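Quarterly update from the structural biology core.
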Amino acid sequence: MSVYKNLNILSDKPTDDMQKEVHYFGLNIVQESENFSVFDYLMYLSEIGLDKLSHKEDIIAVGGTGLYFNAIVKQYSLKNTDKNYRKYLENLDLITLQSLYNSKCNSYSPIDMNNKRRLIRSLESKNQTISKSQLDFNIPKNKVGVFWDNPDTNLNIQKRTAYMMNNGLIDEVKNISNPNRTVMQAIGFKEIINLNDNINLIEEINRKTYKLVKKQRTWFKKVDNIIFLKTNRNSTVRLNMERLIDER
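Predicted structure, tokenized:
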């Protein structure tokens, strides 16, 4: 979510002070009304030459989205995206999209035929061509990263939600005039639009965040080359990260 502009609180972006200390990439690179896919993300990384920079400097990828993790670690090939075709698909109704999918993607794995977003992504993928270029990150040979399963996660989530609420989360969401489908799926967006009771709003945001963490934990436990740490000691995590960097 942090790739989108005007979602500073909703995506809990690094503060101005944090950004003065560390050079962050991938923040505020598209408008909240624009669609943005994992391949758009890879194109962005390629354009700024971050993979080349990783051979000269220490770079840490931070986040919880498994697909983006795989895209970097497994070095997905870039695809040439036709943005005009994407815009054309987005303007079609569900029945027309279903018809197009049946004619063009009948060999694909079954998907939810009532989900416009899935239909559009499948059709778009079918229309894309593989680029010859591929990202080449300097990645550790054995273990590639750390999943920090903090025993204090639920408490930290509660503190985070309270902080976001106290710093203008509701106003920020209500000022977003033309969000895309991805932004509308962000935890907190629909809750703020649909709920007027702040107590229930906070409880719902916390509940959905707990659920997301559980989903991420399950996903990353299946990744063999991840160090899974269940600790509330920052020093333990830091030590393991330093070892990974030294092993490159």
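Residues 198-221 form the longest helix (24 residues).
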